[in-house]
Q: What sequence folds into this?
């Protein structure tokens, strides 16, 4: 019987010769990732176990990206715990200080995650790497501690739902709009326990950046992973970065899916997710008048150079609306350097935007852009839960970078067409 | 293992930011986290919850972040177990890895009311609402995960068996 990409990757990483959806198997881990919030708990579990054993220190990645540069004493102590552990155990892939980028933008850029890998991360958006044809999934800190010690994770074999995108993209529509549309269609638990396999001619036409945005939000449909088959674009991206072998997989024509769905992109306009769930999506023409206090352009979803180019193209020569804060956070140091070289940083500053360092910052309500009671923000991030960016009586709307930049100019949620 | 306590009711899609808001994640100390458990969904929860109490929720409980601070906060606040019609997958595995008992039952989730006293038999998955006299059976737990709970969580399991 044919296999899906997910099944082929699991097959290549387990000693269990035969398995079916629902079975629990042990899987060999290529990369185990944690950040400054989740690594401390993994380190405590590691220490408590008394085993003091690291299966392969080169497969462990720690990125101190959430509350850094340390926002207060407590977060400084958490970072110090991770720093000390990394030094003591010779963790090679440890990102601190000026090396920090938002983890899911950083790892692909550094060539640390590759097609065909099985990756776990103590961060729910680890599913981002599915865009490179990897099986990547979020786990908890205890899972991560176990993987650090044994090199393995336990996994309930998922079944796969297939989504095919066809047709030409409308103006100003990108990966963010497609994935918001999909989540709006199936709901925040529509993919629960499943793998989403995302494919089709429209997806083939997208660059890696847009694909990473799509896989990033698979978790917002509850899914275990969001896999996009690797193609020549993936290989062009990966080849100069990879420092080890990788394998690309395709699903067999007779692979089994629990469901098949097709979307015609000709009908998909720029999307906005209303508070307080990513499934509350509307096309931009149905948004109505929503005045906003803040725009955030950044995060592992849409903080890459391609996103900044789109935003800068719209903000060029214009001014951020009076009374609105527009915060731009390039997701990694390399993205920041490129944005500087391309003149994007100047455009942002001249428009009145605020530039922050590569950090998660306001995405999870950490720091650098917290909302007051009653305030509304439009963000290129991935979650708009109650209190996600600040006060429990604030509101977060989600969109792609084009709508976010246009809205920063008008002060209300707007189509890019209104300002261009 | 039998759990008994009064219930706190929550709706669908209770996310990890509602269970423990990210603004408190600059620490992983259970005693700090429990002070803010569920506060964005029910500000009274931290002061009203008592040892043994049970959370009953709708679908997709624990969606969102991978933070283990969520089951840690729930455990630290004294909650003995969580009943929901479904759990988000990372929360699901975190709970087993850390030894927080969770039970899936559509009917129990739909019928149990706020403040009812319930009794849950962990080994059989029998849920009894003492207030109304009704009984429910939770979905069976795969044997590997029963082993995890019996061993006291994933790390203890590795300590015992030398592997996952
Ligand atoms: S940018 Fe936001 S979603 Fe991405 S890793 Fe950071 S906090 Fe999580």
A:
């Amino acid at each position: 019987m044919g296999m899906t990409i997910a099944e082929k990757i699991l097959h290549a990483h387990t000693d269990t010769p035969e398995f079916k959806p629902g079975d629990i198997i042990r899987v060999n881990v290529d990369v185990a990732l944690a950040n400054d919030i989740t690594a401390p708990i993994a380190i405590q579990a590691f220490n408590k176990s008394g085993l003091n054993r690291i299966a392969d220190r080169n497969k462990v990645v720690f990125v101190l990206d959430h509350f850094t540069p340390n926002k207060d004493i407590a977060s400084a102590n958490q970072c110090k715990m991770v720093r000390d552990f990394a030094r003591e155990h010779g963790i090679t892939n440890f990102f601190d200080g000026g090396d920090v980028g938002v983890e899911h933008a950083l790892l692909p850029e550094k060539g640390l995650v590759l097609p065909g890998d099985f990756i776990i991360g103590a961060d729910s958006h680890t599913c981002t790497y599915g865009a490179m044809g990897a099986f990547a999934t979020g786990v908890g800190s205890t899972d991560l501690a176990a993987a650090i010690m044994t090199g393995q994770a336990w996994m309930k074999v998922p079944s796969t739902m297939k989504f095919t995108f066809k047709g030409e993209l409308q103006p100003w529509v990108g990966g963010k709009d497609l994935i918001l549309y999909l989540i709006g269609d199936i709901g925040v638990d529509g993919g629960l326990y499943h793998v989403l396999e995302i494919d089709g001619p429209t997806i083939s036409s997208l660059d890696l950046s847009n694909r990473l945005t799509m896989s990033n939000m698979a978790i917002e449909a509850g899914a275990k992973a969001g896999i996009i088959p690797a193609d020549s674009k993936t290989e062009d991206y990966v080849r100069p970065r990879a420092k080890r072998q990788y394998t690309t997989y395709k699903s067999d024509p007779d692979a089994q899916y629990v469901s098949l769905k097709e979307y015609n992109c000709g009908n998909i306009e720029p999307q906005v997710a209303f508070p307080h769930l990513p499934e509350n999506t509307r096309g931009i023409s149905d948004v109505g008048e929503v005045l906003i206090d803040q725009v955030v352009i950044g995060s592992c979803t849409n903080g890459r150079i391609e996103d900044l180019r789109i935003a800068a193209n719209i903000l060029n020569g214009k001014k951020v609306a009076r009374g609105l804060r527009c915060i731009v956070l390039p997701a990694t140091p390399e993205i920041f350097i490129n944005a500087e070289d391309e003149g994007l940083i100047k455009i942002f500053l001249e428009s009145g935007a605020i530039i922050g360092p590569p950090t998660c910052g306001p995405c999870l309500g950490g720091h650098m852009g917290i909302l007051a009671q009653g305030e509304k923000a439009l963000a290129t991030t991935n979650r708009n839960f109650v209190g996600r960016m600040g006060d429990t009586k604030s509101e977060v709307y989600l969109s792609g970078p084009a709508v976010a930049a246009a809205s920063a100019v008008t002060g209300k949620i707007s189509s890019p067409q209104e300002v261009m | 293992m039998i759990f008994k306590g009064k219930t706190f009711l929550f709706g669908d899609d209770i996310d990890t930011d509602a269970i423990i808001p990210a603004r408190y994640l600059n620490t992983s100390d259970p005693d700090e986290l429990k002070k803010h458990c569920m506060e964005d969904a029910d500000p009274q929860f931290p002061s009203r919850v008592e040892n043994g109490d049970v959370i009953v929720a709708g679908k997709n409980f624990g969606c969102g972040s991978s933070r283990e601070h969520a089951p840690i906060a729930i455990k630290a606040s004294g909650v003995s177990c969580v009943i929901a019609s479904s759990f988000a997958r990372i929360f699901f595995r975190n709970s087993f890895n850390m030894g927080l008992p969770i039970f899936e039952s559509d009917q129990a989730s739909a019928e149990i009311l706020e403040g009812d006293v319930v009794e849950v038999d962990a080994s059989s998955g029998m849920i009894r609402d003492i207030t109304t006299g009704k009984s429910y059976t939770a979905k069976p737990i795969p044997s590997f995960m029963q082993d995890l709970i019996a061993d006291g969580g994933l790390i203890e399991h590795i300590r015992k068996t030398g592997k996952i």
Notes: Chain A touches chain B through 55 residues (CB under 8 Å). Chain A has two domains: 5-262, 271-418. The first strand of chain A starts at residue 24 and ends at 28. Chain A has a mean pLDDT of 97.
